[in-house]
Design a protein that fits this description.
The chain is an alpha+beta fold. Helices cover 47% and strands 38% of the residues. Strands 1-2-5 form a 3-stranded antiparallel β-sheet, with no helix packed on it.
Length: 187
């Protein structure tokens, strides 16, 4: 029976040693895993701090951009207002009545007369005005129009907030006259 106790004792001792070895290995692995987790946590904390710093920088830049954007919008509004005011305070000529071409007889000759109205919506007189008149005629097939002739007529001035009735006679006519194109330039 002593022998059985001896075998059981040795078996228990071996099992205890094996269990101790496995538990030591497990403890070592757990310690290693714990160190990895601590290292990983430290790296994650450093990365989070870096992201927080970058976020602060980006937030600061965004605030500066918003301030700059507000300033630019204010400047743009001022430019638009200045431009709109220029349209009112400066001379501002616009064709308000359709320009027409018709033919008349003068001393047995047929001439072209062009008339229409130009309005100055501005608060200043317009000076050195050029009215560019281009006659467009139908081409031979009648399917398209081409510019045939352009004439410049100078007007000394158009008073502010007034309508100028334009009428000019030209010593020529066109058989297939189709339409006029009018351009206005002034100082």
């Amino acid at each position: 029976m002593n022998r059985i106790y001896g075998i059981v004792y040795i078996s228990l001792l071996l099992i205890s040693i094996i269990l101790l070895f496995f538990s030591m290995t497990s403890i070592n692995q757990l310690e290693y895993d714990l160190e990895d987790l601590k290292y990983s946590d430290e790296n994650n904390l450093k990365y989070i701090e870096k992201l927080i710093d970058e976020n602060k920088i980006l937030s600061s830049e965004l605030k500066h951009l918003q301030i700059n954007n507000s300033a630019l919008l204010l400047e743009l509004d001022n430019l638009i207002l200045a431009h709109d005011n220029d349209l009112i305070t400066q001379a501002n000529l616009t064709i308000t009545g359709p320009f027409k071409n018709y033919e008349i007889q003068i001393d047995g000759r047929t001439t072209s007369v062009v008339n229409g109205s130009i309005t100055n919506f501005g608060l200043q007189d317009a000076h050195e005005i050029e009215v560019e008149i281009t006659w467009w005629i139908l081409n031979d097939c009648g399917c398209d129009a081409i510019p045939m002739r352009t004439e410049l007529v100078e007007i000394d001035h158009v008073s502010s907030s007034s309508v100028y009735f334009f009428e000019e006679t030209f010593p020529f006519t066109f058989e297939k006259f189709e339409f006029l194109v009018i351009g206005i330039n002034w100082k």
